[in-house]
Amino acid sequence: MIRHLCLLFLPAFALSCGDKPDDDTGSCGETSVVINEVLVDPPGEDAGFEWVELKNTGSSEVDLTNFYIGWQKSESSTGASQGFPEGTTLGAGEYLLVGGAEVAGADVVVDLDLGQGTGGDGMYLVNPCDERVEALVYGDSNDDAIPDESGSTATSWADKPGAGESLARCSDAQDGVDTNDCGADFVVMAPESITPGDVNDCPHESTAESVSIVINEIMVDPASSDTGLEWIELVNTGSADAYLDLWVLEVFKSDAEDGTEEQIPPGTTLPAGGRLVIGGSAVSFEPDLVIDFSFGNGDEGDAVHLYDFAGTLEDAIVYGGSNEDGMLDENGVATSIAPDAGSDVSLARCPDGEDTNASGDDFALCMVVGGTPGEVNDACCGGGDSCDLAAAATLVINEFLPDPASTDAGNEWVEIYNPSSRNVDASGWQLAWYKSDPASPSGTAALPADTVIPARGFLLVGDELVSGTDVQVTLDIGNGTDGDGLHLWDCAGTLEDAVVYGSNNDDLIEDENGVATSVAPNPSSGVSIERRTDGTDTNRSGDDFCESSANTPGAANAGCAP
Fold first, then answer.
1. Is 556 part of a structural domain of the chain?
2. Are the C-beta atoms of residues 147 and 154 closer than 8 Å to each other?
3. pTM over 0.85
4. How far is CA 358 from CA 264, 316, 321, in A?
5. 3-state SS record for 150-183
6. For each successive 10 residues of the chain (562 residues), what is the average pLDDT?
7. 304 located within any domain
8. Distance (Å, rounded) from C-alpha 316 to C-alpha 300?
9. Running DSSP on this structure, what letter comes out for residue 541?
């Protein structure tokens, strides 16, 4: 028969969400049946495609004749399906699929008109005595005061599913388990994971308390357009495999309270000691998962958080050299900040996998161009076997052109000189340039693997329009206003050489001695800054450098301008 009863006025037991009455419910019999999975927002047209899956969690068969599905979408919008046909039974542990005419494999075909969850919606299993014996309240809130079985406004509700997503009963990662808490009992299932009429494909619940996952390396500012090229590497530092179903990466750019969430896909497993690289659709390697991120580049502090399925913060990185935007880490507002990453320079955890919950201590600029996605961070951290360190090698910034006569972009260059009597392997060494912030470089450029500078030889590092370059990188060096600087770091992150230049050093740029008190000239357009004598270094930029109109990139300096 057809039920037209408004569920708002159905008789009610004093039950919480998910409770069922005891067996002494009169002629209505056993009530061991639960709402187990639902599809309230089918992709495309809803009419005829909505369904509700019931499961008998008891040990004996239940007669469901004249039971029906009821729903409430707002205080004044209620509805009910047809009563189930005579002889409808559900065996112990079995499933019953109740759905519209278009639902394939439906055991009972009824018309449903379920709410999609905006403001709070509810559905109910109602027995022949018009008693709500099972309820599911769900949505983005419960502003509409949807009741549970007791008739009281529900205080726990499941999340609002998206189009094609189901809500599945998965408490403790088990199908059919009812803890009387809709928010805890139901999870959102991706379209590929829904199982109408069958056991739920529940996500394994790896929590932050039982596993150890860290953000190990991240590329926030790829060399070209960022779109599709950003990536992040996670590492399982624990001793057990981790199931990352429903784990979330949240990206914060300027507002520490308002991030963008990216959910790790269902079924993602990260073995003990394993690495998971999540990259955009345009990365040059094959990532384990494809997600197009939009990370901040670090201006005044940006952050990425990793949350487990229960919303517990597992790990965080705050980067940018400062934290004026008040980004949070595991300790609250972050006071330890990872550097500002330059173009095509990743931020890598050094040593690999170690976590002190202090981003400034844990992360360094990777010394390998493009980073090391999917690999141990040893090369990033200066742990490679080939590169020479500053303690055993001498390299200097010998000449550079910060203000080309034409457009700066593509025409800037820096010459590095090896004044020693032996070849120096400069693989992983980095140039960094400072414009206004002495604590954070405006950009960096790493020397690629197998970069060897011969004894008393030159290495020309230039942008794309510079002819004769040995290493091509993107440069954006300052023109000297209020003090700018160039630093050369070895492959372990030790400062090897520095030059500070401009009419003054009001910006407090540092050299090897601290805030520079000796400053090289403010460069004229098209004129290079060069060492007065090739390779001679007193760590005083004003004494060591002068302007030269000769411009001799990759060759011996010609002498200072008259």
1. no
2. yes
3. no
4. 24, 9, 13
5. CCCECCCCECCCCCCCEEEECHHHCCCCCCCCHH
6. 30 35 44 94 94 94 94 86 93 95 96 94 93 93 90 92 94 83 90 92 76 95 88 94 89 94 87 95 95 92 92 94 92 92 86 94 83 90 68 92 90 96 89 87 83 95 94 90 92 88 93 94 92 95 93 90 59
7. yes
8. 17
9. H
| Rg from Cα positions in the chain | 32
**Residue 348 host element (H or E):** strand 347-349
Q: Within this chain, do residues 184 and 237 fall inside the same structural domain, yes or no?
A: no
CA distance 149 to 159: 18
Helices and strands (DSSP H and E) totals, the chain: 3, 40
Domain residue limits at 149: 7-193
The DSSP line for 371-389 is: --TTS-TTTTTT--SSPPP
Picking from 500, 549, 497, 551, the residue whose alpha carbon sits closest to that of residue 521 is 500
| Distance from C-alpha of 237 to C-alpha of 273, rounded to nearest angstrom | 5
Task: Give the 3-state secondary structure of residue 453.
Answer: strand
Contacts of 152 (CB under 8 A, 6+ apart): none
Burial-class residue 60 by CB neighbours within 10 Å (0-12, 13-18, 19+): exposed
Cα 210 from Cα 44, distance rounded (Å): 40
DSSP 265-303: PTT-EE-TT-EEEEE-TT-SS--SEE--------TT-EE
Q: Which tokens sit at 188?
A: 């959102």
Cβ pair 372, 346 in contact under 8 A: yes
For the record, the structure tokens of 60 come out as 């004996």
Strand-strand pairing, 289-290 and 275-279: parallel
Cβ atoms of residues 53 and 24 within 8 Å:
no
Find tokens 């599945």 and name the residue. 168
Give the domain CATH number at 539: 2.60.40.1260
Alpha-carbon distance of 412 to 445, in angstroms, equals 13
Give the pair of three-digit tokens for residue 488: 């050369």
Q: What is the largest CA-CA distance in the chain?
A: 109
Q: Considering the domain boundaries, does residue 201 fall inside one?
A: no
Q: Return the SS3 of 519.
A: coil
